Every structure is written in C-alpha cells, then in structure tokens.
UniProtKB/TrEMBL annotation:
Domain C2 residue range list: 1-103
Signal sequence interval, chain numbering: none
PROSITE patterns named in the record: C2 (PS50004), FE2OG_OXY (PS51471)
Protein name: C2 calcium-dependent membrane targeting
Chain intervals for the UniProt region annotation (Disordered): 253-281
GO MF entry, a single one: ferrous iron binding
Protein source organism: Corchorus capsularis
Family indicated by similarity: Belongs to the alkB family.
Pfam families: 2OG-FeII_Oxy_2 (PF13532), C2 (PF00168)
Biological process annotations from GO: DNA alkylation repair
Domain spans labelled Fe2OG dioxygenase: 203-323
Length: 323
C-alpha cells in the first residue's frame, strides 16, 4: 500500500430489483473490496429491494484503486449464489478532493465534478461530486453486471461515536468506529447531563452523532435492535439545526416479512392502510428531545425521510445504554 490519503467512508444504502436466487426471492448481502480490504453488510432475508444503510470504512492510498462491489444470496447448505457485481473508479472523487483543497472550499456547497454513465463505468445515472462544508461527497447508483437486473445505491455520511470507558466495541458490517471519550467533547458531556436531568432514572453511556447535510440525507426504515443495547433499549434523540420529519410504523407480521416495500416513506402525515401498518409522523425541531423505550425497537420501525424543504444542516445526537 502506498501513501495513505485518508479514509473512505461508504454507506451501502439500498438495492433495487435484485434477481431471484431462491424459490421466490433472495437473501442478499453486499461485499465491498478495495485492494486487500474487504467488508460486507448484513443479510436481508427474503427481499429483492433491500435497505441496508450500513457504513463501511476503508483506508484510501495512492495510487488510487477501484472499489469493487459484489452481491450474494445467502444460503445455508450450499455456496452463496452470485447476484451481480459492479465497480466504482475512485479517481474522480480523489481528484475532486484535491481541487477542493486548492480552491480552499470550507463552507457552503459547491459542485466540483460530474461523472456521466459510459461503457467504462457502472453508473445508472449522472453522479455529482460536491464539496459540502469542506467535505467532498458523492452519491451513486450502480447497475449490477452479470445478471439481468439489479441496482445498488452508495453514498457517504459523517458519523462520530462517543462511549464511556470499558464498554464493548461498537461493530457493525465489519466496521468499528473509533470511540472517543466524553472528556474529549465537554459540550456533549453537558448535553448528556441535561438529558439525564430531563429523564430521571435513565442512564446513557454512549452517543452516536450524525450530520444530515440537507434534505437528500436520510435514514430508511429500520429498528435499533442490536444485542449490545439489551432486549428493551432506551434511546434519547436530540436534534439541533434544521427540523426534520420522523416517521414510525408497526413492524409487519412474520407472515408478511417476505414482502418488501419498494416505495420510500410517503409524504402524508398519517397513513392507515391496515391495523398492522399504522404510520405516525413527528416533527423534530431544533432543541427537541425524542425518547424511544420499552418494546419500541421490537415492535416498530422508524425513519427520517428525504425532504426537499430541508435545506440546511441537522445534527442528531442519539444517546443509548450499552449493557
């Protein structure tokens, strides 16, 4: 490996119209490779339009390589079936980052470069590389090769993990974010103290910070039901900056889990299509505190959908207790 240029953070967002490899569906997961570095997502059972929203991190070195992507169907009693592959040339992103440094772009948003689909890449549509408040970002849709259909969306997001000393490492999708201490960020410790004061009896010992740069940054339907948070996790979410919509809906019954919804969260404030799909909307304003506890993660899914009117940055602090 040559000179280290920095870290490449890749979020595997979702897949669309993946091929069937089992009787009626597939159990897909994604493997990313950059040189000798390999990371993969979790398996989504019985779904041709899966949503992962998983962040994977790689060391980026010179000379810049190609990010290779493979999709597989998980099988129990035989080798996993291939569901297509794609690649992404990282040189345009690195060149744009160097241009941003030369231009000394440190605030606001600026389009640095556009990459168009051609025979040499796997792009479904044109991809913009932008500088957003000094950070170079790119979102892409990749068409899978070697199969009759299938697309994968990748994007970059900013995260920061803070935890008390002695806790188990947070590991997901092969990625272990660096855990900062509370003493390194006194303002965040002050916010933790304020949350504890607002919620007597609650004890939080970890924090995940996410930055939403605008309305195109979102989180799809999911539940925070990782084992390290216990069987009935309590989550306190604090919002700063741009207000965003927060959606809740009931998890489907087991009999319907083989079905996968292709559509993004609807725009309506409330939607009731059945007793099992009640959806509720909340507006998370600047300084607001949202608390989820009890069996919320067991029984419900939540999301922060895309919203064109959300033009400014939102900082989200989610406090949890690692058991």
């Amino acid at each position: 490996m040559g000179e280290i240029l920095g870290l490449l953070k890749v979020v595997v967002v979702q897949g669309k119209r993946l091929v069937i490899r089992d009787f009626k569906s597939s159990d897909p997961y994604v493997v990313l490779k950059l040189g000798d570095q390999v990371a993969k997502t979790k398996v989504i059972n019985s779904c041709l339009n899966p949503v992962w929203n998983e962040e994977l991190t790689f060391s980026l070195a010179d000379p810049v390589g190609v990010l290779n992507l493979e999709v597989f169907d998980k099988d129990r009693f035989k080798a996993d079936d291939e569901m297509g592959h794609a690649n992404l040339n990282l040189q345009p992103l690195v060149s744009a980052a160097r241009l941003s440094h030369v231009l000394r772009v440190s605030s606001g948003e600026m389009t640095l470069r556009k990459v168009v689909p051609d025979s040499e890449n796997c792009l479904v549509r044109e991809s913009c590389i932008s500088s957003v408040n000094g950070e170079v970002v790119q979102s892409v849709w990749l068409r899978l090769r070697g199969v009759e259909s299938g697309e994968i969306e990748l994007k970059q997001r900013d995260t920061c993990y803070i935890a008390s000393a002695g806790l188990p490492d947070l590991v997901y999708s092969g990625y272990k974010p660096h855990a900062y201490s509370w003493n390194e960020f006194p303002p965040l410790r002050d916010i933790l103290d304020a949350v504890h004061k607002e919620l007597p009896g609650s004890i939080f010992n970890s924090l995940l910070l996410n930055r939403y740069k605008g309305g195109n940054d979102y989180v799809s339907w999911h539940a925070d039901d990782e084992k390290l948070y216990g069987s009935t996790p309590e989550i306190a979410s604090v919002t700063f900056g741009c207000e965003r919509e927060f959606l809740l809906k009931k998890k489907p019954h087991k009999s319907s889990q083989e079905r996968c919804d292709e559509k993004p969260p609807p725009l309506k404030r409330f939607k009731r299509s059945s007793s099992h799909s009640d959806q509720h909307s909340f507006t998370l304003k600047h300084g607001s505190l949202l608390v989820m506890r009890g069996n919320t993660q067991r029984d419900w899914l939540h999301s922060v959908p895309k919203r064109a009117k959300a033009e400014t940055t939102r900082i989200n602090l989610t406090f949890r207790r690692v058991v």
